[in-house]
Design brief:
By secondary structure, this protein is of the alpha/beta class. The chain is built from 12 helices and 12 strands. The termini are far apart. 53% of the residues are buried.
């Protein structure tokens, strides 16, 4: 089955293996990709089997399987499957002391994550986080950011994305066009950012512009009142078309952030419709709740046209992993960050 018969959605599952109803649903509805969370992770054999069974349902061995493996508090694979990596702020702190060493640290961390993820069949990591926090913002980003200056975030974000690509892993920039000014957690409520457009251009948009050639990106569930005072970026045609596609210049695959987050209003069918109507290419649903996934699937069409082209280009942008020496890279990283085995 080709991507052209896939639906424009990425879905999760409830546990460590597919239930019969999940298997039947995925076979019938054919999501383009899947996403994993800590609830899905047991040991290496189990996780590899789960990933393989997801792909088997849709008949596509290259169906992308995503995860949020950032390091710090956002890390779905933990020891012994993967080391506990430091948060993004850690290579940022190294960068502040020595730019070249900081960039190397970010590249290494991503390259090592790619080893961990590839071993169990995962093919995409929702990284780099290109948000630039402001003073007093909600700590939902916090140490997940590489720094507090847009140039720093852009430089380290590029190194992190390059490390993933070197390991044959698709990077996903987030949260476009910027989550750093949010004074609320969009998992729980809808943040509203009242900053003027010029301030957003100078700070928030800049890292995304610098990395607008990445294959995929994820939106922010945030209202930018200077652009669209009524709708969050994820469901705003103005933000998607004028800012993300226009000013930022991103023409890669655009995923929504999780449709089940509380920042979005309406039932799941309404939310899925609004996401696609705004110009996002793919709807992301993460929590594995079957009733919600069915409602999303009712509204999501097959990938076609520009969305299909972007999905195919995102897969094609990721080549095979390099032949790097894992043990040597881990030893180098350990010298930089003693907390990581």
């Amino acid at each position: 089955m080709s991507e052209s018969l896939s639906k424009a959605m990425i879905l999760g599952c409830a546990g460590t293996e597919l239930r019969p109803d999940e298997r039947a649903f995925f076979c019938d509805e054919r999501p383009w990709g899947f996403i994993l969370f800590a609830r899905n992770v047991g040991d290496a054999g189990q996780l590899g089997s789960l990933v393989a069974s997801m792909r088997d349902c849709v008949g596509r061995p290259d169906a992308p399987v995503f995860v949020d493996q950032e390091g710090g508090r956002v890390q779905r694979l933990r020891p012994p499957l993967a080391p506990d990596y430091p948060p993004a702020a850690a290579p940022g702190a190294v960068f502040a002391r020595d730019r070249a060493v900081g960039l190397r640290a970010a590249w290494l961390m991503s390259r090592l994550m790619a080893f961990d993820l590839a071993r169990v069949g995962i093919s995409a990591n929702c990284l780099p986080v290109l948000d630039v926090p402001v003073e007093g913002a909600h700590d939902v980003i916090g140490a997940r950011a590489y720094g507090h200056a847009p140039e720093t975030v852009a430089a380290i974000g590029r190194a992190a994305a390059d490390g993933l690509l070197a390991g044959g892993m698709m990077p996903v920039a987030k949260h476009m066009p910027g989550h750093g000014r949010a004074f609320a957690d969009s998992h729980l409520s809808l943040p509203v950012v009242d900053a003027p457009l010029e301030a957003l251009r100078e700070r928030d948009f800049l890292p995304f512009q610098r990395l607008n050639d990445l294959p995929a990106a994820m939106t922010a569930h945030i209202v930018f009142s200077a652009v669209d005072a009524q709708r969050p970026a994820t469901t705003s045609p103005t933000v998607v078309n004028d800012i993300i596609r226009g000013e930022i210049g991103f023409d890669g695959l655009l995923l929504s952030d999780d449709v089940s987050m509380k920042a979005l209003s309406g039932d799941f069918s309404e939310k899925a419709r609004a996401i696609l109507a705004a110009g996002c290419d793919v709807v992301l649903h993460c929590n594995g709740v079957m009733e919600e996934m069915r409602a999303v699937a009712l509204e999501v069409p097959e990938l076609a046209g520009k969305g299909l082209e972007r999905a195919q280009a995102a897969l094609a942008a990721v080549g095979p992993a390099d032949d790097a020496d894992e043990s040597a890279l881990r030893a180098e990283f350990a010298q930089l960050f003693e907390s990581v085995a």
